[in-house]
Amino acid sequence: MSVRRAAAHRPDTPPQVLLRLLRARGDISHIRPRLVDHPSFPPHALRGFVEEQDPRVRVLALKDPELPPAELRRLAASAESFLRAGTARHPNIPTDLLELLLTDPEPRVADDAAANPLLPRAQMDRILAKAGL
Fold this sequence. Notes:
By secondary structure, the protein is mainly α. The chain is about 50% helix and about 0% strand. The termini are far apart. It is built from eight helices and no strands. Helix 4 (about 70-75) runs antiparallel to helix 5 and helix 5 runs parallel beside helix 7 (about 105-115).
């Protein structure tokens, strides 16, 4: 942990060191500033995290606001519900994928999909009508 904290606080930490630390364990949310928020972190590297085996690392790809739909579909198919929920909240999610995540068996994922502002009004109205609201 102390290496991660030091790297996050040093303004001269090289990008390759940040990437190596992230690939080793992901980002640790209670250590601020986060490694992905470091001024030397290369934002273009976020998409590459979709390929990682460790879901704690893969979730970092969702920090890319322009993550392509194909990559979002891969993350939405993950076994880990936190990855599906993060995908449901993503600002670039295609509507059809968002609607698919509304039916996710994990309530948190479906809730996040329903709360996404990209959800079409007609779909929102159907959800509310089904709930009797």
